[in-house]
Write a structure and sequence with these properties.
By secondary structure, the chain is of the alpha/beta class. It has a single domain (about 1-200), classed as Rossmann fold (3-Layer(aba) Sandwich), CATH 3.40.50.10490. The protein has 7 helices and 7 strands; from the N terminus they run ββαβαβααβαββαα. It is flat and about 115 Å long.
Length: about 270
């Protein structure tokens, strides 16, 4: 972290905030593009100082997050995680359609406990149907397993990195204090604002494309009718002209051509 440290005072390393601002802007621009493309960013923060902040701010922009415990293989063994999420959905369906009432009291208690455990660990990623496009981590040391899995799958990692951490495996380093709640809140505000902006731009682009498609369709419909009328009129006019030619040819009297002898007689009379 030496390039991001401004100075050392009384054994405490002070982060260069100018570089922090630059890195926040860089990370925010990248997250905005990810959100604009319709992909998801998974936020990971299981430390006590960051749990509530991440859950509140990330849920507001509709992104998945993990704040309880990083389950091993959450990325590298993603199909198994999806099965657990589907199991939670199956239990909900059983409760809604009345099947749950047919179980004994003991079975109901076991299923309810299982449902609560799944909700606690996986409830926040229930709508994550495929691997995320990026990972945002608070405290690289504590979430080392999440970073390793992301690197194995070539998923870009955004992270708040403190002076005691190694930023080597992080694609977008944000040098900041990852222990202070205010510091975490400031960084997450910037990231969530960028994601919200990207999502809004995507929504506006879709609406614009839909409007343009409707306008083009309407123009084609509007232009199609006169073209059809012109084509029909042209064919009718052509038929009428052909018919007129036929009628004219029939009504014209036939004249026999004069023979050469008949043509010479008047000339002989004139000579006499």
């Amino acid at each position: 972290m030496a390039p991001y440290i401004f100075m050392e005072k009384n054994g405490i390393h002070i982060i260069d905030l100018h570089k922090t601002v630059l890195k926040i802007d860089e990370a925010a621009a990248a997250l905005k593009q990810i959100a604009k493309s319709g992909r998801r960013v998974l936020f990971v923060a299981t430390k006590k100082q960051a749990k509530e902040i991440v859950a509140e701010k990330v849920a507001a922009v509709g992104m998945p997050y993990v704040t309880e415990r990083w389950a091993g293989g959450m990325l590298t063994n993603f199909p198994t995680i999806r099965k657990a999420v589907k199991k939670m959905a199956t239990i909900d369906k059983m409760t809604s359609d009345g099947t749950f009432d047919n179980f004994s009291k003991r079975e109901k208690l076991q299923i309810a406990r299982q449902r609560a455990k799944l909700e606690k660990n996986l409830g926040s990623i229930a709508d994550l149907t495929r691997l995320p496009a990026a990972l945002f981590v608070v405290d690289v040391q504590k979430e080392a397993n999440a970073v390793k899995e992301a690197k194995r799958l070539s998923i870009p990692v955004f992270a708040m990195v403190d002076t005691c951490c190694d930023p080597t495996d992080i694609d977008y380093v944000i040098p900041a204090n990852d222990d202070a709640t205010k510091s975490i809140a400031v960084v997450l505000d910037a990231m969530c604002a960028a994601i919200a902006e990207g999502s809004e731009e995507r929504k506006l682009e879709k609406e614009k494309e839909a409007q343009e498609a409707e306008a083009e369709e309407g123009a084609v419909r509007k232009e199609g009718k006169p073209r059809i009328k012109k084509a029909v009129k042209a064919s009718i006019d052509a038929e009428e002209e052909a018919l007129a030619d036929v009628v004219a040819a029939v009504e014209t009297p036939y004249e026999e051509p004069a023979s050469e002898a008949a043509a010479e007689e008047p000339e002989a009379e004139k000579a006499e």
